[in-house]
Amino acid sequence: MIKRTAELVLGIIGVVFNVLGAILVGVFMGVAGNSINEEIKNDPTITAEDAALASNFVDGLGWFYVIVCVIGAILGVVGILLLRRNSSAIASGVIFIVAAVLITFLTLFVAIIPAVLYLVAGILAIVRKPIDTNENTIESY
User: What's 92-141 look like in SS3?
Assistant: First the structure.
């Protein structure tokens, strides 16, 4: 039985960062999204069609970031739950690494901190092996 404290702590911190990122961007989109859209629409150098397109793009990009962070947090929680059983360390590591790659590329390197935390937790979960405590080894004779 090997303790997986480091992987658990890194996974939990990664989940917290993902949830905080999703909440902050969601609140920003709710509060400042309307003012950004109004500024775009009131710009005299932009046509109405271009303003609508830019406004929809900004809204879509913000909500896409929120969805990606929520998916990353869900994958992180699944990885943590698998790691707690300690029999599924390799599956947990793979889930952490997949979550790290997804949130890194889908957020265009914005969510790099939770991605690095997930990546390190995934590598630790895969690489660390239990120490053989069998007393009947060749070295003990």
Answer: HHHHHHHHHHHHHHHCCCCCHHHHHHHHHHHHHHHHCCCCCCCCCCHHHC
pLDDT in tens, 84-106: 887 789 999 999 999 999 999 99
DSSP class of 86: S
- DSSP code at position 37: H
- Model confidence, pTM: 0.86
Q: Considering only 34-43, 51-60, 85-94, 132-141, which range has the smallest mean pLDDT?
A: 132-141
Which residues does 73 contact at the CB level (< 8 Å), separation at least 6? 15, 18, 19, 22
